[in-house]
Amino acid sequence: MCIVVDYNTTHLTYARARGGLALDSVAVQTKATQPSLVTGVRGTRTTIALKLLMATSGIVFILFVLAHMYGNLKAFAGHEAFNDYAHHLREIGEPILPYGGALWILRTVLLVSLVAHVTSAIVLWRRRARARPVAYVVKRNVGSSFSSRTMRWGGLTLLLFIIWHLLNFTVPKINVTGGPIDDPYVLLVESFQTWWLTVIYLVAMVALGLHLHHGTWSSLQTLGWTGSAGARRRAKVAGWVVAIVIAGGFSLVPLAVLFGIVSV
Ligand code: HEM
Q1: Do the beta carbons of residue 235 and residue 55 sit within 8 Å?
Q2: Which domain holds residue 3?
Q3: Which sign does the torsion angle of CA 243, 245, 250, 252 carry?
């Protein structure tokens, strides 16, 4: 029997120890012949750098959506409280910053994070496709979660949602009922009084929940915080908590409007 061993011989030692192999020859692959997902050590290094970029930009988004979700709950406090809150957001940092200055800093951080997150996702996706140009004949998803298998399409769905969301509430602001756009609370409530728009938002929140569930786990893993059984368990719990709190919290406002609990 001939066995090809990569850098580490652990598997070989293990197989020998179990007495399961009769060896005639062992071919050890050197660095020069070892197949690689990307070319050269630099390529491997940039793959790790890209994973780190995805993880850190993802964490920026997690912090943003957590704060944004919490802010949205002001809708339960009524018309005036919600509009006051939208107004105060623009006063943060005054007089050191101009009116709306903190918001522009936030927008810049989010835009940079979005570009970093999407670009690294595309590059890693292409590297993966190049490393396996011929698809598996049989591919069973054993041990992988549904959320991990929907990261790419879910991410794309979220990107489309964010584009619509900004058109809806930020620039130019679209009130699908034909009502006013200069009153943030009225725009919010009238949007979700439109059933199909509420359905779009709720579907997007399912996509967000799935993305956050796997993304939280994955970023903790990339940062090296899943090194023990206990750490892996905590990272899994963190994935569930982040997904349920954020996607669930966001869904409360559209649902409350749909059921008439929040109205104009
Ligand atoms: C049911 C879910 C959501 C609701 C009801 C909601 C509501 C709103 C509202 C009312 C605004 C305008 C705030 C203002 O101008 O004062 C806004 C802005 C924004 N939302 Fe959401 N949002 C939701 C989910 C999300 C998600 C999941 C993301 C990102 C992943 C997101 C990203 C943003 C961004 C980037 C802005 C623009 C902030 C700015 O530049 O002024 N939103 N959202």
Answers
A1: no
A2: 1-35
A3: positive
Q: Is the CB of 162 inside a 6 Å radius of any atom of ligand 1?
A: yes
Ligand 1 close to Cβ of residue 253 (< 6 A):
yes
Total domains in the fold of the chain: 2
Report the distance separating Cα 256 and Cα 24, nearest Å: 71
Residue 20's pLDDT band, with cuts at 50, 70 and 90, is very low
Q: What is the pLDDT of residues 178-215, one digit of tens each?
A: 999 999 999 999 999 999 999 999 999 999 999 999 99
Q: What angle do CA 69, 72, 78 make, to 5 degrees?
A: 155
CB 249, CB 70: distance < 8 Å: yes
Residue 205 and residue 80 share a domain: yes
Is the C-beta atom of 154 inside 6 A of ligand 1? no
> Could you identify the atom of ligand 1 that is nearest to the CA of residue 61?
30
Task: Tell me the percentage of the chain whose pLDDT exceeds 90.
Answer: 75
Q: Which residues pair with 252 in a beta bridge?
A: none
Peptide bond into 95 cis (omega under 30): yes
Residues 6+ apart with CB under 8 A from 23: 1, 3, 16
Tell me: do 103 and 175 sit in the same domain. yes
